[in-house]
Amino acid sequence: MSTFKPKGPIAETQLDLFMLTVWVTGFIFLVVGGVYVYAVIKFRERPNDDRPMPSQGHGNPLIEIGLIGASVLLLVIIAVPTLQAIWFTHDTPDEVESRMGNWYTGEGLVEEEADNPLIVKVIGYQWWWAFEYPQLGITTANEMVIPAGKVVHLELRSVDVIHSFWLPKIAGKVDLIPGRTNSMWIQAGDNFSVWKEKQGLEGDTSELRASYASYLEDEIHDYYYGQCAEYCGDSHARMLFRATVVDDNEFAEWVADEKAGHKPPQEDSWAEWYALYDENPDQLTGDLNEGLKLFMGRAKCATCHVVEGNPRALGVAGPTLTNIGSRMSLAAGWLNHRTEDGNIDVEQQYENFFKWIKETDVVKPGNLMWKANGGGIGELTDADGEPALLTDDEVHKISLYLQSLK
Ligand code: CUA
């Protein structure tokens, strides 16, 4: 999460500004500290010192005006680039190559959006993130996916308290404030012309394009760590998120995958599955079916979570679980199951699901999951209406079902 390894124009601008401020304040520190040390050594009292009191400079107009002038000058040196950076990072640029119509290779883009950059609505909840892609009609949670080298416009909102979006290597921080929409833009990696300029190259040949593409692939395609940067309650420290930066085709594939949604474990259609679920649930057998029955019923998962495709999993209080089995982490980035080479450690993933569902308050204190011991959005009960925790076997089956959502 280092801000000293910027991977895009916004983070670079912010690092430059930081370094400028470090130089200016370092200079002030050396000058003031140097004068101070000099005065302390030269004018310190020695044994048997009978030198008179040194002359006092207080009120000397030359010194007073000189110091004020120097302070103003130093502030101006910081202020001008600061204002430039504020404008630069605030106004989403209209780059031709970032217009959706010029790079998005998938389906589902309406014509009016072809001239706009990709828009992502970032919505903060205690303690997780929703990422909506309104132009593409998809929503994901806690792990956003963005294309490399393209401008992405972010709209930031909160449904409860103030959060702050911080993706250190790419950009940050902008607050998500209830009742208003903030905006910012991000870009992972340079665009083609900035990249050429930095390399001292000119022209637009297929060779240049190819080496630009390999720059993006080698240096920018990655899995980036983000964090909520504004204290927002019990589990603020556990409100993480991720950004996966991919190429244009991978992005289109990801969108298609999100849109496709999920089918029931065995039946051909949800209508068939629900016909059995409503009339003869005992005929739905196997761990995945058992897990899904718990998901819809006893464990109450569907009251708060969406699973794309499933017509009765439409809850909006919690993050969407569409393709949750493909995500590299759980509980807003707190439980990780990504291996170093970028794959999912399936055993670790199962353990994480199990732990998260079984001990949800240990993993993320104060969260709103259904519980049987107070707190949360409601009380889990058994068939007789008595408060009852999920058993290990029930947690096991729900974990397997969720793992299959990929
Ligand atoms: Cu959200 Cu801190």
What does this protein structure show overall?
Strand 1 and strand 2 form a beta hairpin. Helix content is 38%, strand content 16%. The model has no long low-confidence stretch (mean pLDDT 93). The chain has 406 residues and is of the alpha+beta class. It contains 11 helices and 12 strands. The structure holds dinuclear copper ion.
Which keywords apply here?
alpha+beta, five-stranded mixed β-sheet, single chain, 11 helices, 406 residues, binds dinuclear copper ion
Q: What class do helices, strands and sheet pairing give? A: alpha+beta
Gross geometry: globular
How much is the radius of gyration in Å? 28 Å
- Record the strand order, biggest sheet: 3-2-1-5-8
| Helical residue percent band | 25-40%
Number of strands: 12
Order of helices and strands: HHHEEEEEEEEHHEEHHHEEHHH
Strand content: 15-25%
Produce the secondary structure layout.
Elements: H1 9-42, H2 61-90, H3 100-103, E1 118-125, E2 128-133, E3 138-141, E4 143-147, E5 152-158, E6 163-167, E7 171-176, E8 182-186, H4 192-199, H5 206-220, E9 222-228, E10 240-246, H6 248-260, H7 270-279, H8 287-296, E11 329-330, E12 335-336, H9 346-358, H10 360-363, H11 392-403
Parallel strand pairs: 1-5, 4-10
Antiparallel strand pairs: 1-2, 2-3, 5-8, 6-7, 6-9, 9-10, 11-12
The chain binds dinuclear copper ion.
